[in-house]
């Protein structure tokens, strides 16, 4: 079984961000404004084109009115996507 590329994780994170944004009836532009990010950057994250930094994730969480930990729990429980390697869970 081959390992998924990093892009698969980015796509899954983007999917979670997009669904959270849509659930709040926010446009990419409004989420970008609320997060102090450009709307094109928000779109790139949602499409899984880039890997956002920790700081960017904190800004997105603030823009969504959530804690970052809540977003991570949703990410981890999103069906259909790959799970992080088992070594990550052991702290390696």
Quick tags:
92 residues, 434 Repressor (Amino-terminal Domain), 64% helix
Fold blueprint:
Elements: H1 6-23, H2 28-35, H3 39-46, H4 54-64, H5 68-77, H6 86-89
Helix pairs in contact: 2-3, 2-4
Q: How would you describe this protein?
A:
The mean pLDDT is 86. It is globular and about 30 Å long. Helix 2 crosses helix 3 (39-46) and helix 2 packs across helix 4. It is mostly helical and 92 residues long. It has one domain: lambda repressor-like DNA-binding domains (434 Repressor (Amino-terminal Domain), Orthogonal Bundle). The protein contains six helices and no strands.
> What is the name of the CATH topology?
434 Repressor (Amino-terminal Domain)
Q: Report the C-alpha radius of gyration, rounded.
A: 13 Å
Low-confidence stretches: none
The major pleated sheet works out as: none
pLDDT average, as an integer? Answer: 86
What is the CATH class? Mainly Alpha
The H-level CATH homologous superfamily, spelled out, is lambda repressor-like DNA-binding domains
What is the CATH architecture term? Orthogonal Bundle
Specify the number of helices: 6
Structural class: mainly alpha
Tell me the fraction of residues in β-strands, as a range: under 5%
Domain count: the total is 1
Order of helices and strands: HHHHHH
Task: Give the strand tally.
Answer: 0
Q: Helical proportion?
A: 55-70%
What is the rounded distance between the termini? 21 Å
Shape: globular
